[in-house]
Amino acid sequence: MRTEWYKNAVVYQIYPLSFCDANDDGYGDIEGIISKLDYIRDLGVTAIWFSPLYKSPDYDYGYDIADYKAIDEKFGAMEDFDRLLNECHKRDLKVIMDMALNHTSIEHPWFREAVSSPDSPYRDYYIIRKGKREGDELLPPSNWESTFTGSAWERIGDSDDFYLHLFCIEQADLNWENPKVREEVVDILNFWLKKGVDGFRFDVFNMYSKVYPIQDDDDIKPFQKGAKYYVDGPRMHEFLKEMNEKAMSHYDCYTVGESYHPSSRDAKEYIKEENRELDSIFNFDHLNSDNIGGKKFFKKKFDLKEFKRGLFDPQHDSFGEGWNTLVLENHDNQRSVSRFGISTLFHRYEAATMLATITYMGFGIPYIYMGQEIGMTNCHFHNIDEMKDPVSHMVYKLMCSYHMPKRLAFSFIRFGARDHARVPMQWDDSVNAGFNKGHEPWQCMNPNYKKINVKKDLESDKSIYRYFQKVLKIKKENDAAIYGEVKEYDKDSTRVVAYSREYEGKRLFIVGNFLNRKTLYILPRWVREGKILLDNYEDISIKEGVLDLKPYQAVIFEVNK
Ligand code: GLC
Q: Could you tell me which of 214, 348, 378, 434 has the fewest CB atoms within 10 Å of its CB?
């Protein structure tokens, strides 16, 4: 029953709150998504990943789930979802559901029950421990920190007990040691699989298993105390195998795990085909090549060599073991054309298409984040109140609490905010960019929507969407682009990305200029006889094997032995 459809899949991610608001209440909805399915299919994608559509009080905008088997009213009803699923399938689009199972919302009935009494049978669904009394003071059970700043423990009322939350206070970590919790998880997965969904994206999955007994992290480090006790924990592989055996393995289901800095050994184990854990995981290291130590808000000069390491190391590591994914943007990251040292003022089309070419022609499944296909940019936020992401607010507050001037703190937040990706999708130049009919959207619009929108892109001679169609066609149909081994060229170059893909005598060579000025590139000899499959400029200049690359120019060559 299991096929390998995911191996040449192309996935489009929708952040439902901001995609299309058909009933004009300020929030995107299922009806809106259905109205755009042809647009998505025509791009050439084969699957859609929906960020959470479940009932949620939205402290973390859907990643705090209050009912895993209900669609949030903002988005529609379960019948609307069933119709969406059917409409996707009619267009040969697979449906991937987001599953945030490391934690639930504190408004989930399990949590409400759990905190209602120390004897509740649901108490053990969560990680609840006594605080430490030191004199008059009650300290949290350990010094672990939430990945969103502050202690990872929150006191339950005025009792001595605390619950663990590795993210927002409103996201309580589930106790995966409890077999009942794992049974519930299997039941939820089977509920959606029975409906006919085709895959899952598991949110921060490699934090499910923690090290017990809970203890202080004595390492001296500025951030993330406790991570060594909750990332890639001791029972991770066992938990994944169990989920797979009891749910996914009974269906033609694809899985992708969103991991939080996994060790390279564990990363490989998670996706090894014979292990039957996950089919793929995300790799984000290249997205940290313009920030300090993976801390999104701290900008540093873009480092192309670091970008290449982050992009290609997982491709080499996973090749022959399992499958890889290729990501440039998602709802947690800035827009790709507004970073990596790119100047979009004159070269937005070239930069967006070059990034897509050098990323998606690699080994793995391309993931496209809504709006990326028209080169949407970061938003020019004016103040912190325009931002909705709790993380932006938490980090801003923390910076201000250290007496950092507000304007400086805001400039840090504006650099790395997840909000950039969460402003409404820009469809046309009408009111609210055609996201809805005029009701104030939940998150402000990007003021540049009159210049950058789907309608305008499709009418342009330089349409990013149409270029994406071409590159995705090659990606899906060319065996070397799907199965070929990756060989990097000029790894140390700080100007270009270059690599080949080779499969059964077919070879591709991909090269992209990361500079906003011309650069010369000496083509390997074997490429010189090749034909050009795709180029993001209309002309290409090669003299005696030297390619004269224009700003952000990218070229794909094909060579048959
Ligand atoms: C993942 C999600 C992010 C969310 C976090 C907690 O990283 O992508 O949006 O805030 O998990 O669920």
A: 214
